[in-house]
Amino acid sequence: MADYRDLDRNIARTRIFLSLVGFVSIFVDPTIGEPFVIELYMLEILLAHLAYGVVTYAYVRRAPVTARFTFATAALDVLFATAISLLSGGPATPGQIFFAFAILAVGCRAGFRATLFVTAYGILLYAPLIVVSRPEDRWAYAMRPVYLAIMGYLLSFLGELRASFEARLRKLETTAARQAIARSLHDGYLQALASVNLRLKTCRALFAGDRGAEALGELAALEAGVAREYDQVRSYVRSLAEVEDAPRTEAASGPDPSVRLEAAVTADAAAVERVLAIMLEGLRNTRRHSRAAEATIRATIRDGTIQVTIDDDGVGFAPAAAPPWSIASRVAESAGRLSMTRGERPGAHLEIELPIA
Fold first, then answer.
1. Where exactly does CATH 3.30.565.10 map onto the chain?
2. Which of 68, 69, 93, 70 is nearest to 82 (CA)?
3. Closest to 297 measured CA to CA, from 355, 334, 353, 350
4. Rounded to 5 degrees, what are φ and ψ at 348?
5. 341: region left, alpha or beta (phi > 0 left; psi from -120 to 50 alpha)
6. H or E stretch including 191?
7. How far apart, in whole angstroms, are the C-alpha atoms of residue 76 and residue 220?
8. Which of 7, 9, 130, 319 has the fewest CB atoms in 10 Å of its CB?
9. DSSP conformation letters of 75-98
């Protein structure tokens, strides 16, 4: 799914800017009314539009935008544009700018059909202006929906071209990335696995010939080679994830920690799979790095969300350490929240909140 968060924030910021520009244009334009004077009803509408812009901007900064939110803001944008057009007469109404913004906002976000729908909606709302206008001004007002229709179609068409171009570009970038990964796997890691297979066959032959010392030496060399390949694969995987390649730590010495697992989650299969993957990765990290004697992993439903906690009594995280990137990436993909607790008690402590659906 495409990530429109930056686009939504920019649209919301532009809506606030549009309010300020509309206020200035109505205040100084002599064709709308007396210059440097603004009627009270127009001021109220512009202030309402500014408040609406501020509220939507605050919302998109905190929460992801849904299709319902996009539809509601498009409808409100057109309603404000219609109201400003009805109340600001003259040949140069700023309502056209508000209509253009409504069409552009939907065109950037929702595509060709939605943009045409918003254009048709704006034309329909223009009908009362034509009906209530004076007969001598009716033709002038009647042409505004025509210009709006032309502008809406052109913006819809250009928006569709942009979306098609971006889709093709993403496809080409994805293909190039997949080919690069395939080359790396084929030329590097597959060859390394083939070498491991041959050396294992050599070890088996040495053991069959009662040449145990040579076989052990071959196994020691093989172990070192596998460790090198592991470091390279680990570094490559972290580079794909755009995560800084931290130095590899040796596996924790001593016996496995005693792990208490508690899970009581009722959700759809995809959400449960995400929870299980996070819990499994937390268990692996505890075994490999924590040097803990005991660990507890819990998953419960609380306050309408899935709560996952991972606690152990081991060495914990370094003061400046980032959360485990594999877990953090899964939480981010699920639009969840992850926090780390440091200093209050020994060991590592992760608190994860995931949406149920």
1. 258-355
2. 93
3. 350
4. -100, 140
5. beta
6. helix 190-208
7. 71
8. 319
9. HHHHHHHHHHHHH--SSS-THHHH
| Residue 30: half-sphere exposure toward Cβ, Cα within 13 Å | 0
According to CATH, the superfamily of the domain at 258-355 is Histidine kinase-like ATPase, C-terminal domain (3.30.565.10)
Q: How would residue 1 be classed by pLDDT, with cut points 50, 70 and 90?
A: very low
Separation of CA 274 from chain center: 17
pTM of the model: 0.52
Contact status, residue 94 vs residue 46, Cβ threshold 8 Å: no
Say whether pLDDT at 68 is over 60. Answer: yes
In angstroms, rounded to a whole number, what is the distance separating the alpha carbons of residues 228 and 195?
13
The residue that leads in pLDDT, 341 or 102, is 102
| Structure-block tokens of residue 255 | 């016996």
**What residue type is assigned to position 354 of the chain?**
L
Contacts 24+ apart (CB under 8 A), 267-270: 267/301, 267/306, 267/356, 267/357, 268/356, 268/357
Pairing of strands 294-302, 258-264: parallel
